[in-house]
Amino acid sequence: MTASGVYVTVHGHFYQPPRENPYLDAIERQPSASPFHDWNERIHHECYRPNAFARVMNDSGELVGLVNNYEYLSFNIGPTLMTWLERYDMEVYKQILEADRKSAARLNGHGNAIAQVYNHIIMPLANERDKYTQIRWGKYDFRSRFGRDPEGIWLAETAVDVATLKALVAEGFKFTILAPSQAERCRPIPTEGDPEPQWHAVGGGQIDPTRPYRCFLPADTATGERQYIDIFFYDGPISRDMGFNDVLLNSGHLAGRLGLAIQGDGRPSQLLAVATDGETFGHHKGGTEKCLAYAFTKEFPRRGWTVTNFAHYLSINTPTWEVELKPVTAWSCSHGVNRWQDDCGCGGGGGWHQQWRRPLRNSLNWLRDKLTDVYATEGSRFLRDPWLARDEYIQVLRDRSPANVETFLARHQNHILTPAEQVDALRLLEMQRHTLLMFTSCGWFFEEISRPEGVQILRYAARAIELAGDVAGVQLETEFVAQLEKAPSNVGFFGDGAAVYRHMVVTAQITLEQVVAHYAISGLFTTYAPVQQVYCYEVHQRDYQLQRMGPLTLAVGQVQLVSQITLENVDLMFAVLHLGGWDFHCCIQPFAGRRAYTQMKQQVFAVLPEGSAARTILAINDNFDGQFYSLRDLFAEERHRIMRLLSTETLMRLDQLYTQVYRDNYGVMMGFHRDELSVPKELQVAAEIALSHRCLMAVKALDTEIGEQTGADGGWGGLLELEAIAHEATHLRCQLDIPEAKKTLEHLVIRILWHLLHDANPESAEPDLQRLERILDAANLLNLNLALDRAQELYFHWVQGDLGDQCFRTQNSEISETVPAVNVTTAKFCWSSYQLRRILALGKKLAVDVTVWSDAIGEALSS
Predict the structure, then answer these.
(1) What is the DSSP string of 498-515?
(2) DSSP string of 296-308?
(3) If you average pLDDT over residues 251-274, what whole number do you get?
C-alpha cells in the first residue's frame, strides 16, 4: 500500500512526574489538588478517563456516542504514569491497551502507542549507561503492557543529540518525534546517478512537517556503514495553537486550522502532524476531549482525511528526504538543553533567577558517580554482571511478586545468595533506581529549587544515599549537602539548596520504627489482620494485647516488619498509650527476646489499673529508650483519618446544637422569607448545617436500607426523608455542602442501574426504576451536581449493545420489526412497552439521547 491523500496524526504526550514517597511507594495526599487526593487523581478525572470515554453530544447536551480517543490518538504514556493508572483505574488502563490493539487492527498492525524513556530524563545530559537503561526500561515496560515491541519512542522534552539517536538505533527503534526548531537543514535523499541535491537551511523552524525524514548517523569508523533513524516533525504553530489558543474550541476550528497546513503542490500524500501534552485534552483545556472525539469520528472523515499514526504512515510512505539536526536541542528551550542545567531564562517568572540549576546538576552528577562506584564494587559481590542486572531490574519493577523476585535474583546472582545478601542486592538495585529518578526533568523545569518537583528529586537522592550507606557503610550525605549550598534559592527562608534539603527532605525521611509507630497508633482505631499491608510493607503480628481503663487505652505488641521492595525485615516491639483526645505516647524498640518482651508487658499493664497517665508513661519509658512518637508522626493519610474520628463526638454535639437553633427559629426564618427579607446569617448557617447533617444521615440510611438487596422492596424510608429535606432546603434557599452524601448517591445510582439493566427481571424492575428516578430528582433539588459519567456509560453501552437490543423487544411483533434485529432466542426477559418507556425516560434523566429508540417504539405502537 502506498500513501495517497491527506493523513492526520494528533499525538498526545501523556506524562506525570513520579510523585511517590520514596519510602512508601505511594503518593501521599496533596492538598493543592483538592477535592482530589493528589494531582495524578485530579488530572486522571479531568483528562485520562474522559479520553477513554469521550462524549459525543447533541445540541441539547445529551450523550449520543462514546469514543475511546486513544484508539485514534497517537500517544505515549510515561511508564510511571501507566503504573499509577494500572493501580488506580484498571478500567481506563484496559481501555488504553484495547485502543492500541484496535488501532493496530485498523492500521495494518501499527498500533497508536509508542514508548517513552522511562522516567523523563534529559537524554543529552545523561551518561551513556543511563541513556541505555532509560531506553531499555521504557522498551520493556511498553512490551510488558502492550504485548508488542514499540516502533517509535518519545524523548523527554524531545531533547536529543547524536549519542541519543545512536542508542535508539541500537535498541531497534524506527522513529522519534521532534519539534521543527530542532532541524538544521534538509534535502532530498541523493539517488545514485543523479546530481547531488542541495541542502535547504531550516534552522528557524521552517522545515516542512508534512513528510517524514531520514536522519543518517555518522558513519562507523570501522565499516563505513551509515545507520539511520526516521524522524517526524510536528507542526509547531498548530501544536502551539492547540495549547494556547482556541483551536480546540470545537472540531470545526481544529479541522480548519489543520487544513491551512495542506500543501497544494500536487504531492501524492501528506501528513498533518501535531503534538502536544496529552493533558491539554481535558485538564489544561476542560472538555476538549469531546472536540477530539467528534473530529476523529465525524469531522476528519467528512473531509476525506485518514486518521493514522506515525508508524503506519511510515510503512506506506518511506522517507525521500533526509535531515540534519542541530547538535543538542529540546522543544522547550531555545538554548539547547540549558533549561536543565543553567540560568538560561527559560521557565522563569516573577523576576526569579535559575542560578541554582547548574549547582543542582553538578551535585547530582557527583552523587551519581559516587553511587556508581558503590554499585560496581558492592554489586560484584552478589551479581554476575551488575549493569546487566540493572538493565533487567525493570522486570522486577513490573512484577514485585516474591516468585518473580526470586527468579530474577537466581538468574543474576554469582553464587547462591543468603537472605541477607538478597536484601543487599535489592538495596543496591533500588539505589540505582532512585539514582535514575533523581534526574527526572521536572526538577529543573521551573523557576525555583524548592518547588515540589525540585524537592522530589532531592528526596530520591536522599533515599539513594541512605541505601548506599546501608550496604556499603559510606557516608555521602554531608558532602552532597555541602555541594547544595552552592545552589541559591529565590526564597529567603531557604537561602540555598542545602536548607531546602534539611527542611523539606530530611524531615520527610521515614524509618522502619516510624512505620511500626504508625501501625501501633492507628491500631487503636482499626482491627488489623495477622498480616497487614502498610503501604509497601507487610506487618506480621506476633503478639498483641489491648486494655482500656477509664480514659486511657494501652496496647502492647510485637511485630515483624518486612519491606516488599528490598525484603529487609526487622522485629520490633511497641507500647502505645492513648491518653484521650489528641494525646498519644508510643515507644518502639528492637525485639530482644520473649523474656524481655513479656517482662515489659507485665510492667506496663501492672500500673494501668491505677488510672494514672503519668505512671503508665513512666513504666513505658523505663522499658524503652526514651524516643517516643505521637499523632503527628503518623503518615498523613492515617493521621487525618484519626483526626476525623477524634472530632466525631465534638461535631455531633455541634450538629445537635445547630439543629436545635434551626428548629427553634424555623418560624422566624419563614417570616423573613415571606416578607422577602434577608435571613440573618447566623440563622441561615444554622439551617444549612442542620439540613446538611440530616441529609447525610438520610443518604447513609438509604444506602444501608438498599444494601445489597437491589431490586427488593427496600430503601423507601431513607428516600422519603431525602425528598423531604430536598423540598425543605429548596423552600429555605439553603445551599448544602455534603460531598460525602454526593459520593454515596453516585455509587448508589450505579449499583441500582447495574442491577436494573443486567440482573433484574422486568416483572420486578419497578422498585429500581422508581428509586433511580426519585434519587435523581432529589439530587437535582439539592443541587448536588451528581457526577453521572459512569452511569451514562453503563446505560449507553447497555442500550447500544446486545442486551439492550434484546430487552428492547416486546411481545408486540410490530415493535420487533422496527427495533434492530438480534438473536431473540438469547433474550432472557420480555419488557412491556410501559417499562420500555420508563427506561427511556430514565435515559433522559441521565442526559442520554434515546430519540432513536423512543421514535421506534412510538411508531410501532401507533401503527
Answers:
(1) HHHIIIIIGGG---HHHH
(2) IIIIHHHTTPEE-
(3) 94
Residue 587's DSSP bridge partners are: 575, 628
Q: Are strands 269-277 and 152-154 parallel, antiparallel or unpaired?
A: unpaired
Q: 35 preceded by cis ω (within 30°)?
A: yes
Q: Which of 431, 438, 429, 437 is nearest to 392 (CA)?
A: 429
229: which strand partners? Answer: 215
Specify whether the CB–CB gap between 194 and 205 falls below 8 A: no
56 DSSP assignment:
E
Diameter of the chain by CA atoms?
104
Q: Are 557 and 531 in contact (CB under 8 A)?
A: no
Whether 516 and 539 have beta carbons less than 8 Å apart is answered as yes
Segments making up each domain of the chain, as ranges: 5-21+43-325, 353-508, 512-634
Q: Is the pLDDT of residue 712 over 80?
A: no
728 in Cβ contact with 766 (< 8 Å):
no
Judge whether 439 and 482 are in contact, CB under 8 Å: no
Q: Which three cell numbers stand for residue 770?
A: 422508581
**DSSP H or E segment with residue 325:** strand 321-325
d(CA 387, CA 130): 10
pLDDT (average), residues 156-177: 98
Helices (H), 90-203: 90-106, 128-146, 162-170
Q: Which three cell numbers stand for residue 21?
A: 514517597
Mean residue pLDDT of the chain comes to 92
Residue 344 CA to residue 817 CA, distance in Å, equals 71
Tally of CB atoms within 10 A around 414:
13
CB-hemisphere CA count at 13 Å for 401?
Answer: 4
User: Which of the 8 DSSP states describes residue 201?
Assistant: E
Contact 628, 568 (CB under 8 A): no
CB 38 within 8 A of CB 19: yes
Cβ atoms 535, 24 nearer than 8 A: yes
Q: What is the pLDDT of residue 863?
A: 54
Q: What DSSP string describes 466-480?
A: HHHHHHH----HHHH
Centre a 10 Å sphere on the Cβ of residue 553 and count the other Cβ atoms it contains.
18
Question: What are the pLDDT digits (tens) for 638-665?
Answer: 888 899 888 888 888 999 999 999 999 9
Pairing, β 321-325 against β 183-188: antiparallel
Q: How would you label 110-124 residue by residue, b for 16+ Cβ within 10 Å and e otherwise? A: bbbbbbbbbbbbbbb
Alpha-carbon gap, residue 74 to 176, rounded angstroms: 12
Q: In the structure grid, which three cell numbers stand for residue 344, read together?
A: 538560561
What is the C-alpha to C-alpha distance for residues 138 and 133, in angstroms, rounded to an integer?
A: 8
Cell numbers for 358: 547548574
Share of the chain above pLDDT 70, in %: 95
Residue 247 has a pLDDT of: 94
User: DSSP letters along 770-814, please?
Assistant: HHHHHHHHHHHHTT-----HHHHHHHHHHHHSHHHHHHT--S-HH
The rounded distance, in Å, linking the Cα atoms of 554 and 546 is 6
Residue 711 has pLDDT above 60, yes or no: no
Q: Which residue has the cell 487544513?
A: 259
Residue 258 corresponds to which cell in the numbers above?
Answer: 489543520
Task: Give phi and psi for 848, each to the nearest 5.
Answer: -110, 130
Which CATH code fits 5-21+43-325?
A: 3.20.110.20
Q: What is the pTM of this model?
A: 0.93
